Amino acid sequence: MTVMIITGTSTDVGKTVVTAALAAAALAHGRTVSVCKPAQTGVGDNGPDESDIDVVERLSGVCGIELARYPEPLAPDVAARRSGRPMLELDSVVDAVRALDEAVDLVLVEGAGGVAVRLGAEGFTVLDLAGAVGASVLIVAGAELGTLNHSALTVAAVRTADADCAGLVIGSWPTEPSLAARINLEELPLVTGVELRARMPAGAGALNSNEFGVLARSIFGEFTASLLG
């Protein structure tokens, strides 16, 4: 069984669409998959907005679980305090991930924001979760100016935590990339020392499930095949 955590260099870099693409590619490879979103923020209990788990299911057909939801779009620990709802506990997240890991071939865990964002009680982060469940960490990065610094700092944090870094993915590759974006394709592996695995085209999240599945297989088919053996 395999657990992979998808984190980002910041918020709104495309983690959810990348998670959906990995799920769709693994499913096409004939493997069972589940997705876990420990903390969803910025989505009401009965509002019209899609949660990240909703987006993953719409795009990939893979179901998942959400362990906590807080209505304000803030870091999970802050959102929990402000809402008066219970904070996540690391042990409960570990138990949930391990239960999924016993049931499916691949568990994808989507974090919130970046690696230093506190998910719950005692300030635990996705890196604490990675260490507790033996997960590898895939980093979703931006394409434009600033991504070299953000990506280098994120990779350094993953390595400091002794977690396995599975590589980088650009979460939203522009239709007309700027000079900086084009140069960053070459510079990201040099600056971070890890492989740039893929680029997700901008707007991929608006595709229907069939179109998205074809795209996911073309981008992540070989990666998921090697990941799962």
Characterization of the model:
This protein has 229 residues and is an alpha/beta fold. The termini are close together.
Question: Main sheet: which strands, in order across?
Answer: 3-2-4-1-5-6-7
The whole-number mean of residue pLDDT values reads: 96
H/E element order: EHEHEHHEHEHEHEH
Tell me roughly what share of residues is in helical segments: 40-55%
Largest β sheet strand count, sense and barrel closure: 7 strands, parallel
Instruction: Report the strand count.
Output: 7
Shape, principal axes of CA atoms = globular
CATH architectural grouping: 3-Layer(aba) Sandwich
**Structural class of the helices, strands and pairings?**
alpha/beta
CATH superfamily: P-loop containing nucleotide triphosphate hydrolases
Distance between the termini: 10 Å
Number of domains: 1
Low-confidence stretches: none
Annotation field: number of helices: 8
CATH topology: Rossmann fold
**Approximately how much beta-strand content do the residues carry?**
15-25%
Radius of gyration: 16 Å
Q: What is the CATH top level name?
A: Alpha Beta
Short overview:
The chain contains eight helices and seven strands; from the N terminus they run E-H-E-H-E-H-H-E-H-E-H-E-H-E-H. The protein is α/β, with parallel strands linked by helices. Helix 7 (179-192) links the parallel strand 6 and strand 7 (196-201).
Question: What's the topology here?
Answer:
Blueprint: E1 2-8, H1 15-28, E2 33-41, H2 52-60, E3 64-70, H3 76-83, H4 90-103, E4 106-114, H5 126-133, E5 136-141, H6 147-160, E6 164-173, H7 179-192, E7 196-201, H8 209-228
Parallel strand pairs: 1-4, 1-5, 2-3, 2-4, 5-6, 6-7
Helix pairs in contact: 1-2, 1-8, 4-5, 6-7
